[in-house]
């Protein structure tokens, strides 16, 4: 049977099924996102068979999608181990202790975005930033009495500054490579959208944070928390060298997975030497999460996290979502949808807008950052060349939507991960993650105004165009 390309109406069916099932699952069934993804997978399978694909082919497509997710799965497992070992070793309790002691409530929220942003720039990994300093900030914010959704939103904004902008970031390298753009040319061009979006986000966090600063817990309550931390753990500034070691290892461009494994075991060694934890307790924390008793129930709730098993639910969702993404790509659903956007392009502004929207649609359909970066670049590359636009415009706006904007999708891989680690629903924190909205929006504005849109002439890219 000949394999056919789906019509636009047919291509919409799996996405409509996903959206409808997600609505009922989240607001009526209270069953999370796994079943909506399964329902969409079933609809996609039926569509694939009707289009002439064999079941063995569909299984292969799912396998290809899952294969793309394996690096993220490995990192999820190791981050779970790191969280367990860093809590047991006193690293995260030390971060919480000094965070409560040193950061004034009036600047806490913008400080969260800035500090997480600096760390993610150094690490090039949003997952590592969220799972370490992000977890500490959630604990500090909760201890102070700030809304956790606001704190989580600031963490996400900071974490995806590095995911978008760091030369160590996988998505940054993939976007540049797929568009055939020099990595540092791509990064320099992203200054135009990243810096304004992040600075504006920090300003908004400062304004919003001030509204809550007067309502935070009293100094006495904060001191009580720190007292219980100091009674349970050895708190010492030297423990802060562990995050510094993490940054150094990744700046030196050592392989990510071995570096993270090493860092997790550094935490385990410190738990044994500094905190006096037994081997059984350490292995338990790395496997099932920290379970010690601080004598304060609210503090126990903050610290009883981490471990490999804490990541299993997220990993299951990631595997199903990427299996769906692989099938949607290979039966032609995503190609049909993205080509429909190209056919509506009438100007540079509409080209940029269509590219951003296409990346968001791929993110909505698959939940996978890499697909949301790769597929729009493949689809729109020729359209940018036909309009004499430098490829770095394409790489910039695709990364803005595919690597950062995908966090708007509550069932995306990044959202699954952040919700699992921070303990805050994506539906609660997404409205406060201002950076993820501003970056794509700024790119669309640039498309229609011409500001920073670089032309390509005689095979060479000109410098960025400034608005007069």
Automatic annotation (TrEMBL):
- Signal sequence extent: none
Q: Which residues form the Na+/H+ antiporter NhaC-like C-terminal domain?
A: 158-451
Q: Does the keyword Transmembrane apply?
A: yes
What is one cellular component GO term in this UniProt entry?
plasma membrane
Under the heading InterPro entries, the entry gives: Na/H_antiport_NhaC (IPR004770), Na/H_Antiport_NhaC-like_C (IPR018461), NhaC_Na-H+_Antiporter (IPR052180)
The record's subcellular location field reads: Cell membrane
Asked if the Swiss-Prot or TrEMBL record annotates the protein with the keyword Repeat, the reply is no
Q: Give the main location.
A: membrane
Molecular function as annotated in GO = antiporter activity
Superkingdom classification of source:
Bacteria
Q: Which Pfam families match?
A: Na_H_antiporter
Q: Where are the transmembrane segments?
A: 7-28, 34-52, 73-96, 102-123, 135-161, 195-213, 233-251, 257-274, 308-328, 348-377, 398-423, 429-448
Record NCBIfam families: antiport_nhaC
Q: Which family does it belong to?
A: Belongs to the NhaC Na(+)/H(+) (TC 2.A.35) antiporter family.
Q: What is this protein called?
A: Na+:H+ antiporter, NhaC family
Origin organism is: Terribacillus halophilus
